[in-house]
Each structure stands twice: as structure tokens, then as C-alpha cells.
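Hypothesis: this fold can be encoded by more than one sequence.
Test: take the C-alpha cells below, design a sequence, compare later.
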């Protein structure tokens, strides 16, 4: 059966560099793997009172159900002030609760960090990795995917122009596909 990979991007910008790079990576998943973008921009900020009172917004419960239907995830993250954008952290938090019902549990993930700067969103990449480890997500160890100076490899339509980068992204998503098999129950 086709394995479903969820694409989650920590930028809400229409012309997001991160979205462009993560999508072009996902398009290189091997045969037998499909991907779908999961929107996170409308999720209300996490507030435990709502879960405690059995009053979780439908949009949270729908999101949690949706996440359960995926086999693995590609996380594309930009860096905001040396960390993960709040919108992405909020999506992780919403999926992690109520306590004991973490929907990310055991599903492998690949992190792709993207920046126009030279440090390649290293800080966001590592903070995201740490949160995912806490959520019991097996995060692809190698290759680590840091895409820096991104505007040098994108054309006006945000297509990646550098074959070496495309080959590298392909190898990364192939590794994620291997990890799906490795962690299959
Ligand atoms: C940034 N940017 C940024 N870049 C970086 O490499 N390290 C950082 O810590 C930050 N901090 C930061 C904070 C905030 C609030 C914004 C809006 C931006 C710049 C960022 O990398 C740039 O805007 C990217 O283009 C954002 O990614 P998308 O939207 O193109 O995917």
C-alpha cells in the first residue's frame, strides 16, 4: 500500500523559500510514497484548559485525527530568531496533547531547514530535532539537511536550479522512506 508522507512547513508566506524547497524534496520521494501538505496556520494556540474541560476546538481534534493517518513527515522549517517559528511549534504542541495521546508518537520524520542566510537555520533545525525527540519521533540522523543561502539556488518561480541540491534532497527523502520501513510495526 502507498505510504503517506505529511509535509509540514513552518512558514505561512505564499512565496516561502522553505515551502518551495521542502515541496521539491517531497516530489522526489520514491515510488510507493505519496505526500500531502498539512496546513497548520489556522490552528488556535494551544491552551490546556480546553483539553481539560473536554472542550477542544474541532480544528484541533480534526488535526489530531489527520496526523494519525500519515506514516511519516517532512518538516520544512525556516528560522525565526534562532528557533522554530511559533506556528510550527504550536502544531507540534497541539498534536502532542492531551497527555498520553501524542499523535506524533513513533512516526519517522525528516527535517529540512532553509534560510537565505549562511547559517542555514541551524538553530531552528536543532530546536525542532529536540522537540521531535521528546515526542518519540525517530528523526532521520543522516543526512542532516541544512539549505543555506537559498536565494542563490532558486529561480524567480522558486524552482531549485542546482542539480547537486536536488540530488541531495532526493537522497534525504529516500532515507526517510527507508526509515518508514525500518520503524514499521
Ligand atoms: C527571520 N529570519 C531569520 N533568518 C535566519 O537565518 N535566522 C534567524 O534567526 C531569523 N530570524 C527571523 C525572525 C523573523 C521574525 C523573521 C520574519 C525572519 C529571516 C528568514 O530566514 C527569512 O525571512 C526567510 O525567508 C523565512 O523563510 P520563508 O518564509 O522564505 O520560508
Amino acid at each position: 500500500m502507498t505510504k503517506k508522507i505529511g509535509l509540514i512547513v513552518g512558514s505561512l508566506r505564499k512565496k516561502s523559500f522553505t515551502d518551495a524547497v521542502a515541496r521539491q524534496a517531497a516530489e522526489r520521494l520514491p515510488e510507493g510514497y505519496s505526500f500531502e501538505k498539512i496546513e497548520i496556520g489556522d490552528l488556535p494556540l494551544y491552551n490546556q484548559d480546553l483539553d481539560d474541560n473536554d472542550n477542544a476546538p474541532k480544528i484541533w481534534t480534526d488535526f489530531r485525527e489527520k496526523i494519525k493517518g500519515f506514516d511519516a513527515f517532512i518538516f520544512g522549517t525556516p528560522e525565526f530568531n534562532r528557533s522554530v517559528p511559533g506556528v510550527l511549534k504550536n502544531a507540534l504542541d497541539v498534536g502532542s496533547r492531551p497527555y498520553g495521546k501524542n499523535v506524533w508518537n513513533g512516526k519517522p520524520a525528516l527535517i529540512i531547514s532553509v534560510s537565505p542566510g549562511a547559517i542555514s537555520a541551524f538553530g531552528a533545525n536543532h530546536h525542532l530535532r529536540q522537540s521531535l525527540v521528546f515526542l518519540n519521533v525517530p528523526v532521520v540522523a543522516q543526512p542532516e539537511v541544512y539549505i543555506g543561502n537559498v536565494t542563490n539556488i532558486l529561480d524567480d518561480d522558486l524552482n531549485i536550479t542546482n542539480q547537486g541540491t536536488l540530488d541531495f534532497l532526493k537522497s534525504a527523502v529516500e532515507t526517510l522512506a527507508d526509515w518508514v520501513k525500518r520503524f514499521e510495526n
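The chain has six helices and five strands. The beta strands are 3-9, 33-37, 72-77, 109-114, 145-147.
Hypothesis status: open.
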